[in-house]
Amino acid sequence: xxxxxxxxxxxxxxxIVSSSGIDEELIKQLANDVLKSxxxxxxxxxxxxxxxxxxxxxxxxxxxxxxxxxxxxxxxILYDELAGLLGKxxxxxxxxxxxxxxxLLGIQGSGKTTITGxxxxxxxxxxxxxxxxxxxxxxxxxxxxxxTNCEKSGVEVYGxxxxxxxxxxxxxxxxxxxxxxxxxxxxxxxxxxxxEKDLLDEMKEIxxxxxxxxxxxxxxxxxxxxxxxxxxxxxxxxxxxxxIITKLDSSAKGGGALAASAATGAKxxxxxxxxxxxxxxxxxxxxFVGRLLGMGDIQAxxxxxxxxxNEADDVRLKRISSGKMNMDxxxxxxxxxxxxxxxxxxxxNMPGLSGMVKxxxxxxxxxRVQRWRYIIQSMSKTEKADPDLLNASRIKRIAxxxxxxxxxxxxLLKNYKNSKGMMKAAKGRQMQGFLRKMGMG
Length: 441
What we know:
This protein is α/β, with parallel strands linked by helices and 441 residues long. It folds into 3 domains: 83 residues, Four Helix Bundle (Hemerythrin (Met), subunit A) (Up-down Bundle); 189 residues, P-loop containing nucleotide triphosphate hydrolases (Rossmann fold, 3-Layer(aba) Sandwich); 140 residues, 434 Repressor (Amino-terminal Domain) (Orthogonal Bundle). The chain has 20 helices and 8 strands. Strand 2, helix 6 and strand 3 form a beta-alpha-beta unit. Helix 7 packs parallel to helix 8 and helix 16 crosses helix 18. The longest helix has 20 residues. It is flat. The two termini are 26 Å apart. This is Signal recognition particle 54 kDa protein. It is found in: Cytoplasm. One of its GO terms (cellular component) is signal recognition particle. Pfam families: SRP54, SRP54_N, SRP_SPB.
């Protein structure tokens, strides 16, 4: 993703890290390198200059806080400035106990139908029950593509192949799903341009029928700075609650797309990072910048730690951190990792692991994790509390109860013991060491 920007920024940071001392000349050179990297990623020149000037000014004038070296402080300033360029953190949350209706809008060719399928899978994996309405009546094959995209996730798509009345299809679709107890309804609409009056009128009509809780504008990341005018035009027609940027994996203009979209005031909520149905993620400016600078997905690790603190009781935390965790704790950790999103996305964001695990291996791991959850659920309370009790006969019974062969139960036990051993070895320094490796300490 944004390889040129990533390479340029990391090369600039390397000069700072490998220098014997920090002086004014080195700081000016860093600011100049950052400016060039941002311009190569199609960031608007005034924004790029502002980042470079702020970086130079703050690096020369600010005193590092106690315990932070000057080098680390300069990298932190760069991190803050880049994150600020890409907008504020997204705090949107779907409302529980009601149907959340999400309208997807966008220019023709922005990848809206593909993104609808990806978003359906992403939300399903987060535990939401999702339905989809296909209301693109202009593009031949749109409904077939949408159904194909959603089929793998087990998400039902409502559409009417020969009906050209898009607002009517939406109305019928909402009636169709009325008794399905859904959490989220995604509505795919026809791609349009700002001058297409008929399509703009149709969009307003669909908006009235739907009364959406969220309107998401899908933008092609390869168009760079032009995203600003596109987002602004849609914003004037329908209040856009969030933006999804697609095709960031192949774009040299991705930085411009992100910066321009953020400048409209509508938050970038999701980004498409590849062609696989799993290649969609929640967008976080701080998380994104951490990865650009080679710091790993800092925010994901902090989020995980925060959830562990909030959701786990003190006894569990003490067991896990001291290497005395039981199978209940291991199951809890599997559940936590699954909340982050796809396992591939989680591994890609972790320092030192990105790119090391092959795609087919990740899919095998995801399948295996699913099996393990069934196997653990087949254990008795006593066995979960003390997995050392699991002898041959107990393993046979658990295998039979879970529907998986005995070697899968043994594989789970092996991984549980490995994880327990790693926790024990890291006792007392896990999170601190983890953050240090990511350049935060």
